[in-house]
Amino acid sequence: LSPLMLPGWETPLHDMMLELLDNAIDHSPTHGEIRILLQADDGHLLLEVEDQGPGIPYQHRNWVFQPFFRYPLTADSDRNRHGIGLAMVKHHAHCHGGTVELVDSKRETPGTLIRVRLPLPSEMTA
């Protein structure tokens, strides 16, 4: 494996990755599995975080990256969350020239898969 260097602001990148992991942990069942993929892909750094939570229904998918949107709205899932985490992830990804999307889970069970693509420097993609 060769190392990848991603230029950018360290704190926002750190916060983005922590938020994705924290969100996956928060929405997964106890002893659930969280899948993390980090690889170079067609000139981009690809980061995927997939949980085993309840998943997000299609009718809510356009809203998950909007500030203050939370799903599901139950006392068990609250944990003092305010619905700004995925909006922050989207903002940081865009500030680094990248994208973030919610894609269908690759598992047979319910879950959520968030994919972040950040551009790599051209000298790393040659």
List the helices and strands and how they pair.
Blueprint: H1 10-27, E1 35-41, E2 44-50, H2 75-78, H3 85-95, E3 99-103, E4 113-119, H4 122-125
Antiparallel strand pairs: 1-2, 2-4, 3-4
Helix pairs in contact: 1-3
Describe this structure in words.
The chain has 126 residues and is α+β, with helices and mostly antiparallel strands. The chain has one domain (10-101): Histidine kinase-like ATPase, C-terminal domain (Heat Shock Protein 90). Helix content is 29%, strand content 21%. It has four helices and four strands, in the order αββααββα. A four-stranded antiparallel beta sheet has the order 1-2-4-3. α1 (10-27) packs antiparallel against α3. 25% of the residues are buried.
Q: Could you write a compact summary of the structure shown?
A:
This protein is an alpha+beta fold and 126 residues long. The protein has helices spanning 10-27, 75-78, 85-95, 122-125; strands spanning 35-41, 44-50, 99-103, 113-119. Helix 1 runs antiparallel to helix 3 (85-95).
